[in-house]
Write a structure and sequence with these properties.
six-stranded mixed β-sheet; 2 domains; alpha/beta; D-Maltodextrin-Binding Protein, domain 2
């Protein structure tokens, strides 16, 4: 009995190097890490790519750009990364984790102030706007202002309008912009700041106003292949995202198409 147990242990130990081999552990699917705000448009673009090529649709993981970048930095098996801002792509670039020659600025967006559907609030996002007064006893829903792009854009816009100091202690911060959107859609927050594309995808909210473009940095979604990815479909899919077929999937959600090399911007 002891001899058999020893053989089992030795056999299991012999298998460990195979189990730990990345090429065997990773999925055969094309894996994309993408900002949460891309879900509707990217899902549709991926479905179109699958129909045109006859290949399985990519496996897409959606979350805040900061969370996804950190996962990639820790070795998560992604083939492509699409961020909601330049900073997190720059972060991975600085770590040598993306293929520089594949990087492009894919999409543009805007941010808006939202309220639950049926809200009767009326306002203009002018200098000195009093959002604190409109919150009542509630909070302003935003993605995390220190890490998530939508939160950082929103904070910059509020600072530019002179409204930040009155609301900074009355935030309901969420892990990503879609989570902030749901807080408002469910009536758990009377106001929120999200991308225009998120608001368009959620019937439970209404757009009160669009933040002026000059109040925040340009909203740019860069995309790139991850260094070390050898998936044969990574670059073809990345090129497809710049095609007319994919463009209509994104513009239908309210994105603007950029699709230019990052070093040309």
């Amino acid at each position: 009995m002891r001899l058999m147990s020893r053989r089992l242990v030795l056999a299991f130990a012999a298998c460990l190097p195979l189990l730990a081999t990345p090429s065997l552990a990773q999925s055969k699917d094309l894996v994309i890490f993408a900002a949460a705000s891309l879900k509707n448009g990217l899902d549709e673009a991926a479905a179109r790519w699958s129909r045109e090529t006859g290949k399985p649709a990519p496996r897409i993981s959606y979350a805040g750009s900061s969370s996804l970048a950190r996962q990639i930095e820790q070795g998560a098996p992604a083939d492509l990364f699409i961020s909601a801002d330049l900073d997190w792509m720059d972060h991975l670039d600085g770590k040598g984790l993306i293929r520089k020659e594949t990087r492009l600025n894919l999409l543009g967006n805007t941010i808006v102030l939202i309220a639950p559907q049926g809200s009767q609030v009326k306002l203009s996002l002018d200098q000195g706007v009093d959002l604190a007064g409109l919150l009542g006893a509630g909070r302003l829903a935003m993605a995390n202002i220190d890490a998530v792009p939508a939160g950082k854009y929103g904070k910059a816009a509020l600072e530019a309008l002179g409204a930040w100091d009155k609301v900074k202690d009355r935030l309901a911060q969420a892990e990503n912009v879609r989570a902030a959107l749901l807080l408002v859609a469910r009536g758990e927050a009377p106001l929120g700041i999200v991308y225009a594309t998120d608001a368009a995808a959620e019937p439970g909210v209404t757009v009160l106003a669009r933040f002026p473009a000059e109040t925040h940095p340009p909203i740019i979604y860069p995309a790139a292949a991850i260094k070390g990815s050898g998936h044969a479909d990574a670059l073809p899919f990345l090129r497809f995202l710049s095609s007319p077929q994919a463009k209509s999937a994104f513009t239908a959600q309210g994105f603007t198409m950029l699709a230019v090399p990052a070093n040309a911007s």
